[in-house]
Design brief:
The chain is an all-alpha fold. It folds into 2 domains: about 100 residues, RNA polymerase sigma factor, region 2, helix turn helix motif (Rna Polymerase Sigma Factor, Chain: A, Orthogonal Bundle), CATH 1.10.1740; about 55 residues, Winged helix-like DNA-binding domain superfamily/Winged helix DNA-binding domain (Arc Repressor Mutant, subunit A). It is built from 7 helices and no strands. The radius of gyration is 20 Å and the shape is elongated.
Length: about 180
Amino acid sequence: MPARDGIRGGDAAAAAEAAVRHVANGHRGALLRWVTRRMGDASTAEEVVQETLVRAWLHHDRYDANRGAERAWLFGIARHVMDDHVRRSGRFVPMASPPESGDAESAAREVERAVEASLVREALDALSPDHCAVLVAAHFDGQSVGEIALKLGIPEGTVKSRLYYGLRRLRDVLTEWGVAG
């Protein structure tokens, strides 16, 4: 591994390399899936992920666990890499809007929320339309079991069943993607 910041091998370089390998092994798959969905091209997504991991390695000392999750930090870097790539290529890819305040902590939370929302939306697409409709009505629209049953014209027991199995499937999809544990 090349020396960086005046560190010539030794424990610090080995620790930095180990940290980046941990990040790459723990989050690369989810990051690649997310970027591929956003960019629409596997080849470009691979470039973005590689650049993201390089930037994470170069700036590993900037990560602060007190400011947000490692995954949010990494996805934030990926978002910036995608922005740079889009600017260079002239393409448009919608991203989360920047937070109102310039506070780095709120920016990290905003990125984490945007990433989570994007992943949940994509995971919902993996569900059957019946399960998705019930989950959206209950968890996003705040409707009760009775309201959902009335709206969809199905028994309350069916709503409860679809909620249970839909949430289970949603958890399985997110676990499969490496987002949930």
